[in-house]
Structures are given as C-alpha cells and as structure tokens.
User: Fold this.
Amino acid sequence: MKFKIKQIAIGAVLALGTLTAMAADAIKIGTVLSVTGPAAFLGDPELKTLQMYVEELNAKGGVLGRKLELVHYDDGSDANKANGFAKRLIENDNVDVIIGGTTTGATMSMVPLVTKAEVPFVSLAGAVVVVEPVKKWVFKTPHTDRMAAEKVFDDMKKRGISKVALLSETSGFGQSGKKETEAVAAKYGITLVANETYGPKDTDMSPQITKIKGTAGVQAVFVFGLGQGPAIVTKNYKQLGVTLPLYHAHGIASEEFIKLAGPAAEGVRLPASALLVADKLPANDPQKPVVVAYAKAFQERWKTDPSSFGGHAYDGLMMTVDAIKRANSTDKTKVRDALESTKGYIGTGGTVNMSATDHMGLNLSAFRMLEIKGSQWQLQP
Assistant:
C-alpha cells in the first residue's frame, strides 16, 4: 500500500513537472488594446479576434508544437496606461512578441519600450508615424492616414470636388491625419478652404460644423477621427441641415459607426478594407476567401458583425505566426527579420509585401471606397 502511495506521489510530481514545463514553453503573445473608453469599438473586436484565433491555433496543436498564450491588458483608451502595460508585458510577463496598440497614441507610447527591449511589435494603429520613419522593431497592419487622405481625394477629384473643409480630431490619429491630409491635398488639386478640430471627448461639434457651413466655396467635408467622435459629427451635420458630401477616414470602418450615427450616416463615403464588403467582392478577388472566412467565423463566435479593426488584429496575429514558423524559432531577432521579409501575405487589409524600408507593406489598391446606403456598406467603383 505504501509503495502504491509512493508511486502515485511520484507520478503526481512528474505530472506537475510536465505541466509546469508545458506552461513555461508557451509562446507568449502580449497585447495592449483599448477594450474600454472612447476607442472601445476598435479595441473590443481586436481582442475578440485574438482570443478566437489563439484558441483555434491551440486546438490545432499550437505553433512549432507549442501552445500560444495571450497576455492581455486593457488601456482604457489611455496612452499613458498603454505605456505602463507594455512595460509589464516586457519586464514581468516576458512576452515573445507584442500585438496591439489600438490607437496611434497608445502605440507611440509603447514604441520606445519595445525598441529598447528589442521585442517585435505589430501595431494595430492607423497613423503613418508608426512606421515612418522605419523603426527596426515596429510593424503595423492597418492602412495609413496618408493613404486614407489620398483615397478620399482621388474620389473627390473624380466627382469634380476641389474645395474641401477638413474637420480633424486632436487625438494622435487625428493630428497625424490632419498633417498628412494637408501634405497631399495639392497633389490631387484640392484646396482646404476650412480647417477645424475637435477633441476626442467632445459631445457636440455643432460650432465647428456651423463655421464650415458658412465658409464660402466649400464643396465637401472630410472628417478625420475615430471612436465615437465621428458619429457625433455626422449626427450634428444632419441636424444642422448640411447637404454637402460628407467623407470620413478609415477610423469609422465598423458597423458600430452606423449604429451610433443612425440615419445621419446615409451617404457617408470612406476608404476601408475589403472586409466590410466581403460578400460584395467579385468571385475572383484574391481577398474574398480570406475576408469571407474571417467574417463568418467572427459572426458565428461572437454573434455580432465583424469590423476592419478586428481584421487588423487577425492580420497581425497571422503574420506573426507565419514569421515564427518561417524563423522556426521564437528568437526575437529571427522573428523580427521574418516579419520584415513577409511577402505575398493576403489578409483582411490587402496583400502585404514588407521590406527593410516598408514595415506595413500595403499600397493604395488595398483600400476600397465605400458609401453607406440603406444602413449598409456599398462598394463604389
């Protein structure tokens, strides 16, 4: 009897040791996202996406025969908190890679930390400043604010619009968007005849819109913001009876925007990823199988519509997993090098071809011009 008890005890110790070794051997994916706060409708689908696909990958045996462990913190849409959580991920959690930074402000607060610690970092933020100038350890999946401005101005040019009012948010994303919009306007024959701003926590933008409405010659309005602000702008726009064409940047690319803005969203045009019009893409579109599969999986798991923001997280995770597989290692330098050499990856955002001088790897063709009609996203020619 004593012998059996001893055997069981030894077996328990060995089993515990094996479990401990397996836990220690997990590939740690760190993430800091804005799941609450003003940017929640971006961060929430990002987290849901990472959770869903980490579970799926683990169910299939993990990566390199090792399980993935998602270590997550919610920054509450606060860039200062993002910095603190990034420090924790690096110093306490010892993560192998970081995916996240929902907003530009959060991302840029994390950049110095990941650079010093030499940890591969895939950002989900939109501003071009994330990857220009190129930062050795920093990559991003979303289209840039500069691309958004160019896609919008190209559409305006086709419609004979040349005099535009810009209304931008004073967040990191909005400030960068304002700068990039001003920089590329002349290239498309656009003159900014009005240039107003609003705060990310403002609840009424009527004064700015009233001023724009009274500006002589204005033919269209371009709003550069994210989170709830653009929906408030859109509702104020309708309330004030403004009938000029209304454009937004890609910071509203979510069904949540249509829900928040309601009927006022009708006619809004914006550049966005193919994900929002997955079922409307031509059968021969190379992105169609990817975006249809992601949209279906997200809808089935979470019982809610997918957004381009969740798609950015999907691309960030899948490119990271692909890099780890190609590196055949979680060695941080090898994974970084593999990320930089990503070629021909077809994701929800487009076809990605990275290089030492391009840590995003998307061109303007990756953006689709959409219009909201009947509370639905409609693909524009």
Notes: The CA atoms of residues 21 and 298 lie 33 Å apart.
